[in-house]
Predict the structure.
Amino acid sequence: MSIDHNHPQLAIDQRTFTDALGHGALDTCLDYLRRREIAGPEGARLACHLSEKLFHAGRAGEAVECGRFAFSGAANDNDVAHFCAWLFSNSGCYEEAAAAYERLIESRPDWSEGYRHASGAFAAIGEGERAVAFAMKASDLAPQNFDFAYHAGCLLLDAKRVEEASFYLARAAAIEPHNAQALRALSAAGHALDRPDEALALALQAAALAPEDSGLTIHAAELLLRAGRIDEAAALLDAASAGESPHQITRNPAALAGA
């Protein structure tokens, strides 16, 4: 076994630890780790294996403890950092997850999924600007990915950066033109940009695609009211409450969009 001379040698050999782990002696392995009887890059990898076993055994707190031990000992090991990023994300330790994803992105600057994961972690801890920056980068690296474009657009919309939001939401809608949520978000952007006809048309398309979604119906009705089309707004809401499709409101559905 190769030893990193910047760290203490393992007090136990890898086979002993692996055998104990294979036999399910998780507490014994955890004791080895807590007594620092494993160390260095090899020890970090062993800690990752233990952490995974603990996590799937429902012992999340101890799994995170092992993950922190591993990441502090070998953050520059991509396998260790990747595991820790996954562990921290799935354990709700988003600040540590963001740090792990940033570390991975340093060595893989074109890894679009890494930017998306990092964005989610930054959003979870309230780091809005960083969340947006990483989301935009993810979508720009993978412009055909719906989730990346939609995520970036929604974050930008929340941040009141509406022109940019419209760009990414339009990208998402182009990828999945029948996605009602993307059309709803693009409609909101259009409304904020004072494009009422465009916003209303998109809102009505969204409501027609998912008539069971009351939020989409209410959004479309609100825009109809703003346009002074009170009877159509009332008809839309009545149809929704009756379980009808918005297209059943009139014999000429296109009229609802002002066509």
About this structure: The chain is about 70% helix and 0% strand. Residues 223 and 229 are 9 Å apart (CA to CA).
